[in-house]
Write a structure and sequence with these properties.
By secondary structure, the chain is an alpha/beta fold. It has helices at residues 7-10, 18-35, 38-41, 98-102, 106-133, 184-195, 218-228, 274-279, and strands at residues 2-5, 43-46, 52-54, 83-85, 88-96, 139-142, 147-150, 177-178, 211-215, 249-253, 269-272, 283-297, 304-316, 322-325. It is 26% helix and 24% strand. The strands form 4 sheets. Strands 1, 2, 5, 12 and 13 form a 5-stranded mixed beta sheet that branches. Strands 8-14-11-9-10 form a 5-stranded mixed beta sheet, with helices on one face. Helix 2 (18-35) runs parallel beside helix 5 (106-133).
């Protein structure tokens, strides 16, 4: 965190309170970084530019049998779908009254600093999970000003869609949106579907999903850990080997919402290949400016005003990194 103080602050009654307030803010920021799902679900990138473009090249053709003395075949590649992500500016502020400092009410000052950082961390998490919650659409509205954000993939489709196209036209459209309620069998079927995702030329990519992402609901947490937490097949009395045991990272967030219109408490869930996500910039979190806080004295009120500003953006790029399973809404795999 970059923390700057106005010159007149050091000469005022607020001078001695500046360092404790800075420490409060930095301590809370560190706590939110540890609790955030962003580093587990998004490919984190940094930029010094106004925006960044993410793209890839399609695959090269296979080797061919030419026979003795045959000529070398010539294969070609082309640029795949591209996504431009522009960091947005985010701001907030709080103030410390002169009376608080005069009366040594540092407990109240700490509360304000904590609330400020809670707002910062919560905004980031809501924005990140909002991309997943609204991933069946190409846009979503966020914040008190109802700002609209583009969350389409590089191919122009929603992140979770049944008809992701091929750039070259050599591959069939593909789906990363399914409809199975979570179970041991469903986990196996959806994982298999990811194994057979193809590139734009129709070549199997052999993804290896390793992360399960779920809402913080006891009903689905029980299902997930029953399925992956024991060596035997869940719900049976036999000794069959559970090949899902010990293979998964589980990310849990209270900001992930349930599927609309589904009764009986059935929850959405996600599978992510974290290695593919990093290598091919699947879901991108683009940082332009870390949280920067400055302070000054308001001449009208004599209060110490703290302002915080950050610049970041996020959007999906390559849909193949992640699958969403909305029970009852997508195609059921079996």
């Amino acid at each position: 965190m970059l923390f700057s103080k106005a010159s007149n602050v050091n000469n005022s009654i607020f001078g001695k309170s500046q360092e404790p307030i800075k420490m409060m803010l930095e301590k809370q920021e560190e706590a939110f970084e540890k609790q955030s799902i962003i580093g587990h679900v998004f490919y984190e990138d940094e930029t010094s530019n106004f925006a960044e473009k993410y793209t890839y090249e399609t695959s090269l053709g296979n080797f061919e049998a030419t026979g003795e003395g045959g000529a070398y075949p010539r294969s070609s590649m082309q640029e795949g779908f591209a996504k431009v992500i522009e960091p947005e500016t985010w701001k907030n502020s709080f103030e410390v009254t002169q009376e608080m400092v005069e009366d040594a009410k540092m407990g109240k000052v700490k509360q304000k600093a904590n609330q400020f950082m809670t707002s910062y961390g919560r905004t980031r998490e809501l924005f990140a999970t909002g991309i997943l919650n609204n991933g069946q659409s190409t846009t979503f509205n966020f914040g008190g000003n109802n700002r609209q954000f583009d969350i389409s993939c590089a191919d122009g489709k929603a992140l979770f869609a049944a008809d992701h196209p091929s750039k070259t036209g050599k591959g069939l459209s593909q789906s990363n949106y399914f409809g199975n309620p979570f179970s041991y069998d469903s986990l196996s079927y959806v994982e298999e579907a990811m194994h057979y995702f193809k590139d734009d030329d129709g070549n199997i990519l052999n993804l290896q999903p390793d992360t399960i992402i779920i809402p913080d609901k006891a009903r689905i947490k029980k299902l997930v850990f029953d399925a992956i937490g024991a060596e035997g097949i869940p719900g049976t009395g036999n000794n069959s080997f559970n090949f899902q045991f010990g293979r998964w990272n589980v990310i849990i967030s209270p900001y992930l919402t349930n599927t609309a219109g589904i009764t009986g408490g059935t929850d959405s869930w996600y599978l992510l290949d974290s290695t593919f996500n990093e290598a091919y910039a699947g879901l991108v979190w683009l940082k332009r400016l870390e949280l920067s806080t400055k302070s000054y004295i308001d001449e009208n009120t004599d209060n110490n005003i703290f302002k915080g500003r950050s610049r970041y953006g996020a959007a999906p790029n390559n849909w193949r990194a992640i699958v969403k399973v909305d029970p009852g809404l997508g195609t059921v795999l079996s």
